[in-house]
Amino acid sequence: MAQNDVQITRSYCGSPEGSGGTSRSGNRVDQLQSHAEGEFMANLTGLAGFVSKLRAVRTNLVDRLRHVDAALSVVGKLGGGSNYTKPRNTVSASARKRMSLAQKARWAKTKGHLPKPKRTMSASARRKIAAAARARWDKFRAAKKK
Fold first, then answer.
1. What distance lies between CA 107 and its chain's CA centroid?
2. Predicted TM-score of the model (pTM)
């Protein structure tokens, strides 16, 4: 990098060396004044060279990443491990529930007994049980009064 580029980098980072000991807001004012004085075009030429170097480094890194990806896929296939880029299918909660019930039914079939169905009571049966409970409590309260 040229010396101008170093000064620009320092001034953008807010380093006290580039700003002459001023605050960050003062540093920005200095930058604007220097751009207004005509250094802007000189800095752009240096910046273009810097950008081209960064692009070259980026292409080199992309090439290295391709090699790393290829090596990982080969190692994954050799070791029997899964490829990390392979997407996984997600299953909804209701589908998992159906799968669970189906598997439980298969297990029960092999063991010889089916899972017990959920027991439900009719409304009339609930009324009869509630009436019997009220009668027991009435009998208990009557015995307690005596």
1. 36
2. 0.27
